[in-house]
Amino acid sequence: MLSSTFKNTILKRSQATFTKPVTVSLIEGDGIGIEITASVKKIFAKAGVPIKWEDCDVGPVIKNNNTAIPDEAVANIKKNRVALKGPLATPIGKGHRSLNLTLRQTFGLYANLRPAQSIKGYDFLYKDIDFVVVRENTEGEYFGVEHEVNSDNVVSIKLITKEACERVIKFAIDQAVKTGRKNVVVVHQSTVQPKTDGLFKEVGESLVNYNKDIKLQFELLESYIYRSVKDPKIYHDAVVVAPNLYGDIITDLNSGLAVGSLGMTPSANIGTDVSIFEAVHGSAPDIAGKDLANPSAMLFAGCMLLEHVGLSEYSEKIKKAALATIAEGIKTGDLKGKSTNSQYTDAICAKL
User: Fold this and answer.
1) CA-based diameter of the chain, in Å?
2) Burial category of 144 from C-beta neighbours within 10 Å (exposed 0-12, middle 13-18, buried 19 and up)
3) Domain shared by 237 and 311, yes or no
4) C-alpha distances in Å from residue 284, one per residue of 35, 86, 90, 254, 263
5) Do residues 156 and 141 make contact, with C-beta atoms less than 8 angstroms apart?
6) pLDDT, tens digit, for every residue of 69-78?
7) What is the torsion angle, in degrees rounded to the nearest 10, for the CA atoms of residue 210, residue 245, residue 107 and residue 114?
8) How many domains does the chain have?
9) Class of residue 145 by CB neighbours under 10 A (exposed 0-12, middle 13-18, buried 19+)
10) For position 74, which CATH number holds?
11) What's the pTM value of the predicted model, to 2 decimals?
12) Which helix (H) or strand (E) holds 49?
């Protein structure tokens, strides 16, 4: 089943500033985003969640020869300070970069918080998996700047700054305190990239006394991946923190170990002023419109949002209904079930 870690992963720094009903910017997304967004809205309505949705179109538009978010969308998200987002597909064509990266950089969403837990009623490779990973969200290899030297040679910039390293590692330490974990594992590859990853590691070492109740450990990426597959439970008492690319790889790996489907994995993109909660999977255009998509990732991301704004009681009710539905065997195809999106959604609603 989902552990208490999943239930309480969001730092509630500004709950008191959200009035009820809470207004949330809703980014429907592309592909299956239309279907899973409809499922979430239906389930939230049945649960009586005091949420007011404001549809938000994030574009894209081109500004200064690069991908940008429309001004109207930026203003809406800044006003509401919280958003729920479906999967976005980046348009194909010169001048476009990842919309997800654009959102993170536009709003300074420096930390991606992603739990991955086993689910009662669906045993996969392991039982009782319980990971929490914090991924630096704005720079690294995903900084988004590439240069073509000539037709045979290209260069990609990997940006690592002390400020970004410090705030994301501090965030991970705070998460460890909040979730009752004893360790923070700082993942790096400083033996290969001593300047960039070396800085990430050095900043971590400078924070060993940031909270004396939390022990900081340092581990090379290849060691972490090997050990996490061999014996995942050695990381159950830790929050793992990593630079952007490594965090992306680790979190997808963890989802595979826990349930074998990104369709169950939510995440939170946390910034100083704005937080955006999202399903981590892609837009899956091959199954869009076929009533096959699993809405759980976006639903559980919505539950993380509810915890963030002080509506944890609704989050618990919704998660309990969803997990009971899965335990009964009502599962979509990604979980080796035969239920449609509509059947799964309606079964959850029936329990609310």
Assistant:
1) 60
2) middle
3) no
4) 11, 11, 13, 20, 11
5) yes
6) 999 999 999 9
7) -70
8) 2
9) exposed
10) 3.40.718.10
11) 0.90
12) none
